Amino acid sequence: MDKIRVGIVNYLNTKPLIYGLEKPPISNQIELVGDYPARVAEMLLKGEIDVGLIPVAVIPRLPSYHIAGNYCIGTEGEIASVALFSEVPMQEIEQVYLDYQSKTSVALLKFLMKEYWGINRKLFMHEMKNTGRK
How many domains does one find in the chain? Predict the structure, then answer.
């Protein structure tokens, strides 16, 4: 039997969700594929994995989906994981480089820019390239 390819995110806040997946007997039936959230979502969209812990912002792009379980990484209050840093005042910002690792953070930042701060700026998704340096 082929193993089920499961996309996971190796961040501290995902450890409770993946702990049991790393242990037998489940670990004998699955192959864990770790990456950052946006990449796990892309792997699911391309059929490179069978199931994955993905950002909620990606759900509308899926042809179909099933929510497995009653758990997620979320909040019912304020968060501090989405930030906009600038060396100039908010109204002088001309362009914003977005975090390529989290589609949910990008969606929230876009919402905040439009609805809360009332600004519309050029947005760039910028992925850091591996230079081979450590």
Answer: 2
